[in-house]
Specification:
The complex is a heterotrimer of chains A (about 130), B (about 270) and C (about 650). Chain A is an all-alpha fold and about 130 residues long. Chain A is built from 9 helices and no strands. In chain A, helix 1 crosses helix 7. The radius of gyration of chain A is 15 Å and the shape is globular. Helices cover about 45% and strands about 10% of the residues of chain B. Chain C folds into 5 domains: about 120 residues, Rossmann fold (3-Layer(aba) Sandwich), CATH 3.40.50; about 140 residues, 3-Layer(bba) Sandwich (FAD/NAD(P)-binding domain), CATH 3.50.50; about 60 residues, no CATH class; about 170 residues, FAD/NAD(P)-binding domain, CATH 3.50.50; about 70 residues, Alpha-Beta Plaits. In chain C, strands 10-7-6-18-29 form a 5-stranded parallel sheet. A 5-stranded parallel sheet of chain C has the order 20-27-21-22-23. A 4-stranded parallel sheet of chain C has the order 2-1-3-4, with helices on both faces. In chain C, helix 2 packs across helix 3, helix 6 crosses helix 7 and helix 6 packs parallel to helix 15. Classes of the chains: A mainly alpha (about 130), B alpha/beta (about 270), C alpha/beta (about 650). Chains in contact: A-B, A-C, B-C. Chains A and B meet through helix 1, helix 6, helix 7 and helix 9 of A and helix 10 of B.
Chain lengths: ~130, ~270, ~650
């Protein structure tokens, strides 16, 4: 990431439409997240990292690729902070600027099985690639 | 009654059953699903970025076509429903998105969220009525213990989807009662199956589906029903899987005695 | 021509940092009628007031303008100062250059310009002011207290002890309120009933206190010192004079399936009932909706078994009309409904309960006779989880934006009591913050942790999932250990947000008392007048004004009583002379003003008028200045311009507008 962290943090706030300052640090997002154990930066930390403009850590984090966009944190957040939207915005930044390297078309054939619905491929490409 | 209908990509390929049983049942219930012309894939996921417009346009096209026909727009796949409903909400309430989307679309009359988006289950509940459905059942599925699996896309975010209580929904349970079976309520029916993550994180998705399956089975469910092809796929990958998973439309068609008619309506 | 003095206040730096006060003085001196202008650091101080007085005397001022804070803050102060210096207090005008100017602007030049304009408008008005003299009204030396919980009881006792009569109106069949439902009270752990029931008895026995239970305020009219109130005494179906309170009727009543309000619906009660054993009065009521006699005509068991012959099925609601000088609102609170929090499975499991329900379970007179047990199967729990802030501190429209204030302390209390009585039960509390300000409060919470081994975990719960075996899987955050916890519990207790009693909206409307977006009654000043409503003669006691615990409620109840006593102690009140007057020559008797008057102050009379030599009798509006509150609605509504408000005449207001636009 070559842009200064401040600008990146602003961009995340803009893309997500989320104001991380609304967070009261209750941890309900992390309590509710089904992917919690897989994440290196937990949902509640994610909000805090954006607040503190620690963006480099976020864009490097595994969390971007473990979030399910299931909106459980969005639904249950008592402060309307919606951490899931912040995570998606950070993922967008990575996808837009770095080019996506998480999912490559070349690896698709080995991921396929006869039952796999189209919807899965479409969704994954939308989330992981530009 | 005629509705505009948006099937979506998966219902044309891996989830043909979901579609065919729905159409056969619709005929039995006296309504028609008129597929909109030249529909395009919804994208599978709702673009969360507030600056994304292009990825919302296929939904706007479908919505506008329904508006021009003066029809309500019916969806079946949970993902399509989620995307189209949320885009419609954006078109109605977010001025920036509305303006920019309309700039792209160059419609004669700009689209501003006029179309009502209904999931097939909502048609059953709010347009037909579960009591009427119950009367039309010829083959009640008495004795079957069915767990509803909602997943996340139909319910959340509750303020936009307005489908049901996102934490304690009842619409599929009411549907199960209407077709003569017994609903089994279990707490993980609104927790995520892993969704698109299952493409690369098969283990993660499997763990989630195991929790769902074990909970449903623990409460005495003998089968699960869902409206989402991806949920069905993921749940079937569960190693804790002991319960079969069906599309809700299959049981609907069975209860209405039109299960065999699906080939004929599917064309 | 008036001789006007203008006094510009710096308010320390509140005004002076943003407004060039010297410039305001300079510009004011150019205005017509102004013969004196000066600025000072704090006009409201003794020295500032002395400056005003000196100028009035020395310069023979006939009117003054004080450019300072909001008139809500210091209009009275400056009026009194002027009066002491021999000026009619209604010759004082305030130009609000603080709230309306310096506090909301940043640019000094712009703010100064605006301050000059505001001063100019006030000067233009004073030029047209005339001395006004307030009238007098009488004070009915009796107070009404709405609500018979600890707040209402304490206020009533304090007023009565000062020698004034007080009536308490309580909606339910007994006084006692929420406090009567509590088991123990923090931070001293006294039994709630032991400290409340003596107060209930004292109130009932007090010769100055009259208690209307099972009654509601139906209508309020009048104004400070002279309210007229209709009270609906709902038909009790039991003669209060004859009933001996023996309780046989309740034992024999065959209708026993009504959820007990007192026990929060955890068990049932009979159709004829007193809410609890220590109820005051100890006279049951028949809940007609659930009474077999009233529903089917067949039964009458209670009448048969009543030795005193007190049962009266024919009793009707009765309206009592009383006069009061002061009204105290003490309508209390309830816990919020949990429909928006189904992730905690309250509606899905009987073993997920609210804290108030736990109070009943812990209470010896409660549904489990004080045994801690699961309501689903009666088994003793081994693992208990408490969740804090359920519905409090939510800014997402699902719950309440405020902190409910009492939950941290009562949860520490519950946790401690359980660990004390059932040492083999593990207690875990999930909290966001532990908020325990107050005397001996934090020590109390620390005792729960350090002496009683209550496990406090910082983090909110995300989901409570009932398991097939009936236990509850609690999924939560542990923010300090940075882990997600999944633990099984036998019972989950929700520290449910509190909200004002929903009836308060109706009551506030009747009293024309203002309420905020959360339905809490608004105080006249958040710091300086915390127990008074902005509506004169209305006082606030207890949670109806904001969340508070018992000690604070009792304090506020006493404060509300003092304010009410201060009013009742007066023989007469000065009335606001800024009332409406009708010009009989202009009035065409159309009734528009009477229709818009919220106080019923306008009537019509046939009066003889002399209109340019033509004598005739006309139907014209007459304002009862004792009833008029000076709201001005009639002056706006009057199509012929006949209605005018003294002190705020149409001419004065137009002059102000002209001055602003100049």
């Amino acid at each position: 990431m070559n842009k200064p962290a401040k600008k990146q943090a602003e961009l995340i706030r803009e893309i997500s439409g989320v104001n991380p300052l609304k967070c009261m640090k209750c941890g309900k997002c992390s309590a509710t997240c089904p992917s919690y154990d897989e994440m290196d930066i937990k949902p509640h930390q994610f909000v805090s990292y954006v607040q503190n403009e620690n963006i480099e850590a976020l864009v490097q984090s595994k969390t971007l690729w473990k979030c399910l966009s299931c909106f459980a944190c969005v639904e249950r957040c008592p402060r309307d902070v919606r951490p899931g939207k912040l995570i998606d915005a950070a993922r967008q930044i990575v996808v837009r600027e770095r080019g996506a390297d998480y999912l490559s078309p070349d690896e698709i054939p080995e991921l396929l099985d006869p039952e796999l619905p189209q919807q899965l491929l479409v969704s994954a490409f939308r989330r992981y690639r530009r | 009654m005629k509705y505009s209908y948006y099937p979506g990509c998966t219902l044309r390929t891996k989830a043909k059953d979901l579609d065919a049983y729905a159409k056969a049942s619709a005929r039995a219930l006296g309504f028609e699903l008129e597929e909109i012309e030249n529909w395009q894939c919804c994208g599978g996921v709702y673009p969360l970025g507030s600056d994304e417009i292009a990825t919302k346009l296929s939904s706007v096209r479908a919505l506008n076509e329904a508006k021009e026909k003066g029809q309500e727009l019916v969806t079946l796949c949970s993902a399509c429903h989620h995307v189209i409903k949320r885009v419609n909400d954006d078109m109605k309430h977010v001025e920036d998105i509305r303006t920019r989307a309309n700039n792209y679309m160059q419609l004669e009359t700009p689209y501003a969220g006029e179309t009502t988006v209904l999931h097939y289950l909502e048609v059953l509940r709010d347009r037909i009525g579960f009591d009427v459905l119950k009367e039309k059942v010829v083959n009640p599925l008495t004795g079957r213990k069915i767990g509803a699996y909602y997943g996340c896309l139909l319910l959340r975010p509750g303020s936009v989807m307005a489908f049901d209580n996102p934490e304690n929904p009842t619409i599929i349970e009411d549907f199960i009662r209407a077709i003569g079976a017994e609903p089994v309520v279990y707490p993980y029916r609104n927790e995520c199956c892993g969704g698109y993550i299952s493409l690369k994180e098969k283990e993660l998705s499997k763990n989630m589906c195991d929790t769902i399956m074990e909970s449903a089975e623990g409460f005495g469910a003998e089968m699960l029903i869902t409206a989402c092809p991806l949920c069905l796929y993921n749940l079937n990958k569960s190693t804790a899987k002991k319960l079969p998973v069906y599309y809700f439309t299959e049981l609907l068609a069975e209860a209405l005695g039109v299960k065999d008619a699906k080939e004929e309506v599917a064309k | 021509m008036q001789r006007i003095g203008v006094f510009v206040c710096h308010c320390g730096s509140n005004i002076a940092a943003t407004v060039d006060v010297k410039k305001v003085v300079e510009m004011a001196l150019l205005e017509p009628g102004v013969v004196h202008a000066e600025d000072y650091q704090y006009m409201c101080s003794e020295a500032g007031q002395a400056k005003i007085a000196a100028a009035i005397r020395e310069k023979h001022l006939t009117g003054i303008v004080v450019c300072s804070c909001s008139p809500r803050m210091h209009e009275t102060t400056f009026r009194k100062a002027a009066e002491r210096a021999g000026l009619n207090p209604y010759m004082v005008e305030i130009a609000n250059i603080r709230e309306h100017c310096s506090w909301i602007h940043k640019d000094m030049e712009e703010a100064t310009k605006k301050a000059v304009i505001l001063a100019r408008a006030a000067i233009a008005k004073v030029n047209l002011n005339t001395p006004l003299k307030p009238g007098e009204s009488r004070v009915t030396k009796r107070a009404l207290v709405i609500g018979g919980g600890i707040a209402g009881i304490q206020t009533a006792l304090d007023i009565a002890d000062a020698g004034y009569e007080v009536d308490i109106v309580e909606k339910t069949p007994s006084i006692g309120g929420r406090m009567s439902q509590l088991d123990k009270t923090f931070p001293t752990l006294d039994c709630s009933a032991c400290i409340l029931t003596p107060k209930m008895v004292e109130a009932a026995a007090h010769e100055k206190i009259k208690i209307y239970t099972y009654s509601e305020v139906e209508k309020v009219s009048g104004f400070v010192g002279d309210f007229t109130v209709d009270i609906r005494k709902k038909a009790r179906s039991v003669d209060m004079d004859k009933c001996t309170g023996c309780g046989v009727c309740q034992e024999k009543c065959p209708s026993r399936k009504t959820p007990s309000e007192f026990n929060r619906g955890l068990n049932t009660r009979s159709a004829i009932y007193t809410p609890f054993a220590q109820a005051i009065p100890n006279v049951p009521v028949i809940d007609r909706e659930h009474c077999i006699k009233f529903q089917t005509g067949k039964c009458g068991v209670c009448a048969k078994v009543c030795q005193a012959g007190a049962i009266d099925y024919g009793q009707k609601d009765e309206i009592v009309t009383e006069k009061y000088g002061a009204i105290v609102v003490a309508t209390g609170f309830d816990t919020i409904k949990l429909d928006n929090y189904d992730e905690y499975a309250y509606s899905q499991s009987k073993d997920v309960i609210t804290s108030l329900e736990l109070e009943r379970i812990m209470n010896a007179a409660g549904p489990t006779k004080g045994h801690l047990e699961r309501l689903s199967d009666g088994k003793a729990p081994k693992e208990m989880v408490f969740i804090q802030c359920v519905g409090s501190r939510c800014s997402d429209n699902r719950g309440k934006s405020y902190c409910s204030k009492i939950c941290c302390m009562y949860t520490a209390k519950h946790a401690m009591l359980i660990r004390d009585k059932y040492p083999d039960v593990n207690v875990t509390v999930f909290y966001i913050d532990v908020r325990t300000p107050g005397k001996n409060f934090d020590e109390f919470y620390r005792r729960a942790v350090e002496q009683y081994g209550v496990n406090y975990i910082k983090g909110q719960v995300g989901k409570v999932a009932p398991q097939p075996d009936g236990r509850l899987l609690v999924q939560a955050s542990d923010l300090l250990d940075n882990r997600q916890i999944k633990m099984e519990a036998d019972m989950v207790v929700l520290a449910t947000a509190i909200e004002p009693n929903p009836d308060v909206r109706k009551i506030a409307t009747m009293l024309t008392a203002s309420i905020d977006t959360n339905n809490f009654l608004t105080e006249a000043h958040a710091k300086l007048r915390p127990v008074e409503s902005p509506t004169a003669g209305i006082f606030l006691s207890g949670v109806c004004q904001g969340p508070k615990d018992i000690p604070e409620t009792v304090e506020q109840a006493g404060a509300a009583a003092v304010k009410a006593i201060g009013l009742l102690a007066k023989d007469k009140l000065l009335t606001n002379p800024c009332t409406a007057q009708s010009d009989i020559l202009l009035c065409n008797g159309c009734s528009t003003c009477a229709n818009v008057c919220p106080y019923g102050a306008i009537t019509y009379e046939d009066k003889e008028v002399n209109d340019h030599g033509i004598r005739e009798t006309r139907r014209v509006a007459v304002v009862n200045s004792a009833l008029c509150q000076g709201c001005g609605a009639c002056t706006v509504a009057c199509p012929s311009g006949a209605m005018d408000l003294q002190g705020f005449s149409n001419r004065q207001i137009i002059a102000e507008v002209d001055a602003i636009c100049r």
